[in-house]
Amino acid sequence: MTMITVGPKRYLTEPAKKVPIKQDVDVVVIGAGPSGTAAAINAAREGAETLLIEQFGSVGGIATTGLMSHWAGSVQGGFFEELIDRSIDCFKEDGKVIGGVMTINTEKLKSVYIKMLMDAGVYVQLYTMATDVIIEGEDKRKINAIVTESKSGRAALVGNIFIDATGDGDIAAKAGVPYEKGRDKDGKMQPMTLMFKVGGVDMKKAVLPGSFESNLDVPAGKIQDLGKKHLPQPAGHVLLYPSSLPGIVTVNMTNSIGVDGTKSEDLTKAHMECQLQIAPIVNFLRKYVPGFTDCYTTTSGSMVGVRESRRFKGLYTLTGKDILNARAFDDWAVPRAHFNFDIHNIEGSGLDKNGVQKKFKQHKPYSIPYRCFIPENIDNLYLTGRNISGTHVAQSNYRVMPICTQMGEAVGISAALCIRNQVSPTDLDVTLLQKKLKDRDISPPS
User: Do 142 and 126 form a contact (C-beta atoms < 8 A)?
Assistant: First the structure.
């Protein structure tokens, strides 16, 4: 091993190593969040030998490891509705149902995901990070394998089709797919948040603002105004959601700005900054929010929530105008998506001036075309989740978990169809995918 200096940077050169090939499968899915897990299960259900890898010790991503409160946004039919049916968890208090269809019990959801993966026959490898790609051939258009690191050491995973569900597009970036970050004028990205839960809440009295535009009256004044005045910046908004457990509320109020989810240093900064905001937020809740006088922290997420990072150049780029026009595409893969422009303030707390939540007036579903999942310069790679091809504004809408779940379903089925028909994603007849989706009650509005 030799140390060298090039300009201001110092490097170590290490001798060449033989990397063992650990597995050779039809489909390799990288990232086990809602989109990647859906992709893996559906690829396997369609007969493809499928491997799912995940850097954390659990599946479900932000929905489980990140302690997300609820499923925001909507789609129709298929895998997402099956997932909800199997993971719904409510309880009754004084005859009133607490929790609901879209409320997440993270522990139950983890078990549901694991059972579905096992039943589908997916090979799952947790505690494993994808660190590089191997691309051979003169045109450099095909990924032959990915390189992983884990406690077991460095290993290669060979596949025919790869699905990047990392959220940040780690594999697509390593493969050289062009991408953008953040808003057009300066590349700045939405803040990160560490979710946490509090117990000891009197649910009969609790005030639970569910959006930035919910500035509810409490004894001391308007709740969002109080947050801006008394919470530690860049925190400053009040977002509280019921859980499916008695007296437990999920808190979405920590905030870290000026951070980049593709940098470990920034992830560290955001996680630590948000963790230190929890105590003053709890003190604020006790003092100002009805029902929270005796609340206390029960748990916080094991991963910080990243709303936005890389968006890759695909065969089509979805725009905010497409969403506002409820555009329908002939090559639809997600036909009935709906949400608002959930752009958190890039400069601090609250809603960005371009964001619209409760006051979003476009109530019609839009479709996401198949082309958004195909990078322009790699032949055997699919994108799925918030890293697909779209603009900054569009991404603020389609990044939510139900929509990402249906993306994963479509991409997983497509990958299996590519294997079955021995074609690349670009050459797949999209009507084959659409027929499969229609059989699952996923179809465009009539």
Answer: no
Q: What residues pair up with 146 in beta bridges, in sequence order?
A: 133, 157
- In the block, tokens 């149902």 appear at 97
Local confidence band at 152 (pLDDT 50, 70, 90 cut-offs): very high
HSE-CB of 265 using CA atoms within 13 angstroms: 1
Preceding omega of 444 cis (within 30 degrees of 0): no
Opening angle at CA 36, ends 437 and 370, nearest 5: 45
For 262, the token pair is 């593709």
Closest CA to 280 of 323, 316, 229, 320: 229
Q: What is the dihedral of CA 31, 36, 40, 41, to 10 degrees?
A: 130
Position 95 scores a pLDDT of 56
Which DSSP string do the residues of 238-262 spell out, in sequence order?
--EEE-SSTT-EEE----B-S--TT
pLDDT tens digits, one per residue of 185-200: 999 999 999 999 999 9
Are the C-beta atoms of residues 68 and 243 closer than 8 Å to each other? no
pTM of the model: 0.95
102 sits in which H/E element: none
CA distances from 347 to 226, 267, 296, 344 (A): 19, 17, 29, 9
Which string of b and e fits 149-172 if b means at least 16 CB within 10 Å?
eeeeeebbbbbbbbbbbbbbbbbb
3-state secondary structure of 268: helix
The DSSP code sequence of 392-433 is HHHHHHHTSHHHHHHHHHHHHHHHHHHHHHT--GGGS-HHHH
Rounded distance, CA 33 to CA 66, Å? 10
Tokens 């009040």 sit on residue: 238
Query: What does the pLDDT look like over 57-103, one tens digit per residue?
Result: 999 999 999 999 999 999 999 999 999 989 988 655 565 555 577 99
